[in-house]
Amino acid sequence: MKLDVLLGLQWGDEGKGKIVDVLASKYNVIARFQGGPNAGHTLEFNDIKHVLHTIPSGVFRADTINIIGNGVVIDPVIFMEEIEELLEMNIDIKKNLFISKRAHLILPSHRILDAASEAAKGKTKIGSTLKGIGPTYMDKTGRNGLRIGDIINPGFEEKYNFLTNKHKDILKQYNFDYNLEDYENNWFKGIELIKSFKLIESEHEINQYLKDDKLILAEGAQGTLLDIDFGSYPFVTSSNTTCAGACTGLGVAPNKIGNVIGIFKAYCTRVGSGPFPTELENIEGETLRKQGHEFGATTGRPRRCGWLDLPALKYSVMLNGITELVITKADVLTGFDTIKVCTHYKLNGSKIDYLPYEVNDQLEPVFKEFKGWKEDISKINSFDKLPKEFIEYLKYIENEVNVPIKVISVGPNRNETIIL
Ligand code: GDP
Ligand code: IMO
Ligand code: MG
């Protein structure tokens, strides 16, 4: 059996949590492969609205196994809060949630370093979620990091103190006030909680599941345009958010990847700094933000909004080898007289149809206009009943990108989904 991957094709928040929750009923295992609590994945069903950060979005399906893979970075405090919230909903996932021993730990001092670094950057800040993601991945690649497997071995506290002291030395370079103690106490409580979970070598477990013909879906975090290599560097996150990240973040060989499901919003959003060619800093952008409730699930920050960017979408499809598409939040476009799609850009008078190395103010998006629709589509459950204007919009995108759209999401709820 091969492993399917679902990942975001834009700047994150495409609706991955919702769609993984919908698809989870078809899979035995859901596995997160990168990122950490910078992610905020929202799930809605019955009267429940729930946001997950570290825990995979299969957690509300009783028989689904959830794995936090080696590529993920974990903050024990946030993990503990997530588990407590689930317990309040009578969901005890101890028997269904496994954590890779190779996953790295976000230390309290990593969070401080993230905040100090951002403060020092001033106007050029990345707009990080301040969860310590960058400094943790830096310690991972710098070969200084602490891993989940370390917490059950002797000498863990010594290793913790050694790395924390190193961070304190680095922090002396910044003029930054901080207090570690409060967070530290909870952090060690979180470590104790993590010890009570099944800590595994997930690469073996996952490959065995594949041999046993179990169905696995790898759940991406962030989006392709935030990838450390291919995103709008330096305004990116610190992991590979692309399909290749599923191989390294779970220990699965490239020839074991099956379907690669790419998810995109019917328009674009971005939270944090960095280039955004189709951004709308006008009433249309505000309308998208208002109708789409575009406020960060992790930080509450307003998301920047703009029209769909086809060159960027095609770039993401290419990088990931996308085999099928999911479009979300189409309902948010309801009511617009005209909907626009960026088909290419103009740069110094020339036409370019790809996302260039350098995206700056000189890059001018060129739009094709579509007639909008007025009817509420959120309760529609079959393709044939969709407004013809919306179908035209979908067909255009599908044709341009040359990958079939297999799922249309028309609302935040599990039920508000048309599967083709
Ligand atoms: P993720 O990070 O990719 O999981 O996405 P987020 O949860 O951060 O943001 C997506 C937001 O849109 C959440 O509030 C979802 O509940 C909501 N959402 C998902 N799909 C749809 C949809 O089709 N229509 C509407 N209106 N909201 C949606
Ligand atoms: P999900 O999984 C949207 C953005 C931050 C910032 C940049 C770097 O919910 O789609 P970091 O904290 O990773 O160092 O921040 O990346 N970012 C996200 N934007 N959705 C996310 O995750 C994000 N995770 C990080 O806003 O611009
Ligand atoms: Mg999100």
Overview of this protein structure:
The protein has 420 residues and is an alpha/beta fold. It is built from eleven helices and 20 strands. The protein has helices at 16-23, 76-88, 108-121, 133-141, 156-171, 181-195, 202-211, 243-250, 283-291, 310-320, 388-401; strands at residues 3-8, 29-32, 41-45, 48-52, 65-68, 73-74, 97-100, 104-105, 198-200, 216-219, 257-265, 268-270, 304-306, 308-309, 324-328, 338-347, 350-352, 364-371, 405-409, 417-419. The strands form five sheets. Strands 9-7-5-2-10-1-11-15-19-20 form a ten-stranded mixed sheet, sandwiched between helices. Strands 14, 16, 17 and 18 form a four-stranded mixed sheet that branches. α2 (76-88) crosses α6 (181-195) and α3 crosses α4. It is globular, with a radius of gyration of 21 Å. The mean pLDDT is 96. It binds guanosine-5'-diphosphate, 6-O-phosphoryl inosine monophosphate (IMO) and magnesium ion. The site of guanosine-5'-diphosphate has 23 residues, from α1 and β3.
